[in-house]
Amino acid sequence: MKIAILGAGFTGLTAALKLAQDGHEVTIFEKESIVGGLASGFKIKGWNWYLDKTYHHLFTNDSSAISLASTVNQKLITKRPETAVLVKNQMSAFDSPITLIKFSILPIIDRLRVGVCTFYLKYITSPKYINHHYALIWLTKFMGKNATEMIWNPLFEGKFGAQKHIISLTWFWARIKKRTPSLIYPEGGFQTFAEKVQSEAEKHRVKFNFNSEISNISSLNTKFDKIIVTLPTQVFNKVAKLPIAYQKKLNSIPHLSALNLILVLKKPFFIKETYWLNITDQSFPFLVLAEHTNFMEKKYYNNQHILYIGCYLPENHPYLKMSSKKLLKLFDPYLKKINSSYSSSIITSYLFTHSNAQPIVAPDYKEKIPDFKTPLRNVYLANLDMVYPWDRGVNYAIKLGEDIAKIISKEK
């Protein structure tokens, strides 16, 4: 069969490779000039590796990504970096049973409740018994009011804003279930990983059309037997003439945008070698600080230090219209609360925003997920809204590509 794929992110790349291996003739249309999608990266003079535009890593149980990396000879690096939380102006490690025991900001009884509940969620094999619960209500009841008000409520507020109260416990369960102490990163960055998948796909005669934004998928109907759309749902709505009822279902899942301001520094930002810091102070205008060079070595980035400043925002938030210079001016007083002298170390900054980056996962989310098959004949949808109950990420983008490829191949 002749198959068109819209989007050269990891879902499109994986589907293309699998389908080509099954003997299909595959063409990918990508509006950008490179592969990678939301996991794409960039490189500046003096850097040996790409840097991801938004922070990414893999867990040691991300089997789909690990398998694909093996297929394309992508080397993976496994490390155990520190994850911490900022509570009451104090940075504390918060990523293991031992660090939980030492987390003296919480009374011991609350630490025990957090530990027991985390263990319970970690070892539930399926969320079917908990998917009707709201996360914050459940956490308050079982982990306790102290832990919820001190940690979980501000983190939910930082990520989901006004919609924090409708987030399903299943979303929280998935974060706990998947997390592993050690993390994995592809040598050279995720852009290198994506390009290796591209190269392998080209060996199987997959055609890549870059700088090719499809404005109407009906223009492909006469040239291809099947069309796979891996674009965000809102983009699919724009490029396809869809039945109104189906559009309503697609649009019933609200989303947040992701903003990442990247600082390139002469010196480390964190005094300790912390990789990831979750911010619980609700006065801060950002949620996460991730010092990438406390995870991967600075030598790959010309001995410079890389800090991600991340937050999730409603689609019309004013931050999304600001320049990197204005954002840094806004963020500066809060960054100085953690490192008062960081600004003298700034070399440059980069700003990246992505719309539709985080769906709002309410208890009825499962019923809203569209099928792979759309109402349009021979048109299929496979995007990251469909990886429920798991959170968005490269591993599940790859798994999605595998799944849609199997469906298409069975229909030949």
Describe it for me?
- This protein is an alpha/beta fold and 412 residues long.
- Among the domains are: 183 residues, FAD/NAD(P)-binding domain (3-Layer(bba) Sandwich); 83 residues, protoporphyrinogen ix oxidase, domain 3, CATH 1.10.3110.
- It has 13 helices and 17 strands.
- α1 runs parallel beside α8 and α5 packs antiparallel against α6.
- The protein is globular.
Topology:
Elements: E1 2-6, H1 10-21, E2 25-29, E3 41-42, E4 51-52, E5 58-59, H2 63-71, E6 76-79, E7 82-87, E8 90-93, H3 97-101, H4 108-123, H5 135-142, H6 145-160, H7 169-178, E9 183-186, H8 190-203, E10 207-209, E11 226-229, H9 233-239, H10 244-251, E12 255-265, E13 274-279, E14 288-291, E15 305-313, H11 324-338, E16 346-359, H12 365-368, E17 379-381, H13 394-410
Parallel strand pairs: 1-2, 1-11, 2-10, 7-13, 11-17
Antiparallel strand pairs: 3-4, 5-9, 6-9, 7-8, 12-15, 12-16, 13-14, 14-15
